[in-house]
Amino acid sequence: MRAALPMTSAMNTPRRRGLSGFTLIELIVVLAIVALLASLVAPRYFRSVDNAREATLKTSLNVMRDAIDKYAADRGLYPDSLDELVTRGYLRQVPEDPLTGRRDSWQMLGPKPGSAMQGRVADVRSGAAGRGQDGQPYSSW
Predict the structure, then answer these.
(1) E strand or H helix at 80, and its extent?
(2) Which of 18, 42, 66, 119 is a plausible cystine mate for 77, CB 3.0–4.6 Å?
(3) Dihedral through CA 56, CA 60, CA 65, CA 66, nearest 10?
(4) Under DSSP, is residue 92 helix (H, G, I), strand (E, B) or coil?
(5) What are phi and psi of 123, to 5 degrees?
(6) Does the structure show a pLDDT above 80 at 18?
(7) According to the model, what pLDDT value does residue 113 have?
(8) Distance (Å, rounded) from C-alpha 22 to C-alpha 8?
């Protein structure tokens, strides 16, 4: 059997205060550095989110315009609504406007006056208010 070790005074005393944990100053410095880094990264993040929304809007508009053109070429008239493109199989579903977050906010434009084609939807635009990063209103895209 082993003999019990004698207790030394170091084992009986509590830890010294200066050796455990972080000081308030150290925590404040770390939080300041994290806040500085976050303030540098946040604008780039939000700009990239805006870029992604605008790219999604452009893609959705191109897909719907292509479907409208194919519908008009096949049937000889423009559709009466975007839902008609879905029911006839030209679109799987009406895409969500990435800026408004809704499917029913699209602005539908009829054919130009004097056009021989009938129907209500010859073009589609976003119903979002505001301007894109290029300065043009979303409703003019």
Answers:
(1) none
(2) 119
(3) 100
(4) coil
(5) -155, 165
(6) no
(7) 86
(8) 28
